Prior knowledge:
This protein has about 290 residues and is an alpha/beta fold. The protein has one domain (about 5-289): Aldolase class I (TIM Barrel, Alpha-Beta Barrel), CATH 3.20.20.70. It is about 40% helix and about 15% strand. It has helices at about 65-75, 95-100, 105-110, 130-135, 155-160, 165-175, 200-210, 225-240, 245-250, 255-275, 280-289; strands at about 5-10, 15-20, 25-30, 30-35, 60-65, 85, 115-120, 140-145, 180-190, 215-220. β7 (about 115-120), α4 (about 130-135) and β8 (about 140-145) form a beta-alpha-beta unit. α7 crosses α10. It is globular and about 55 Å long. Bound molecules: iron/sulfur cluster (SF4). Iron/sulfur cluster binds near residues 39, 42 and 90.
Amino acid sequence: MECEITYKEMMVQSALTELKRKIPYGWDLNIYRGCQHGCQYCYAMYSHNYLGSEEFFKDIYIKTNIVDELEKQLKTDGWKREVVNIGGVTDSYQPAEENYKIMPEVLKLLIKYKTPAIISTKSTLVLRDFELIDELSHITYINIAETITTIDENIREKIEPGSAPTEERFKVLKEFRKTNASIGFHLMPIIPLLTDNESNFDGLFSRAKDCGVDYVLPGTLYLRGKTRSHFLEFFKRDFPDRYNEFISLYKTGGADKEYKNKLYEMVNRLRDKYELPKSYMKPMRERLK
Ligand code: SF4
């Protein structure tokens, strides 16, 4: 993504955020605020409001003391080794991580305190930490998921300009298949009129099959608040001929119900064609036994 990035360091008072709904994971860990991947549909844009910045993709905040704070939390007697979701709001392997190298320190703590985790990313940088993830995978549950939306690189470059190319992301999954980690393919968001066609799903599922993923998790685009206005502006500018049809599907935050029913019929049929598992929870339960 060609734009000027400002890195801003910040201190936090705690690393982990406890979630009210404990399933499928109890805690969130986000190292960065803002994200350079620049996805047009990013639902986390709202989170910059609290920082007083309008530039979610350009003002990147780094929580420089997060490793110390994480250890304080993990070493308490009360820590029950619940699953930590890493990067649920912003991508932990975005470009800033190349220099800050915070994830290896986080992984070392997860190993030390035998703490299970989920990492989802759109980057290949996670491969840098292959050995640490491999080690963790032999101690407890670790899930590596790539979020992938399309096999069409032209579309990918428009909707996720800072992310890794699709084929590269599948290569990441294939590499992690060599570890004991669970590997997941997050097919999200499915974007009506851009990525919701049979040939796209067929291409993605055949690659996922080749990687031996443990599950496929699909999800449809959801638009509200800042994300809605940003995405609609992008869609109108880049796909003006499809805009009216698109907007008719998004009268509310979620896509039209009838549209979604038909979409999931197709997704399920193609997922079954490749015999891809659909349970996100099964590999977690099996490895946490
Ligand atoms: S990778 Fe995730 S956090 Fe980063 S811009 Fe894309 S959707 Fe937002």
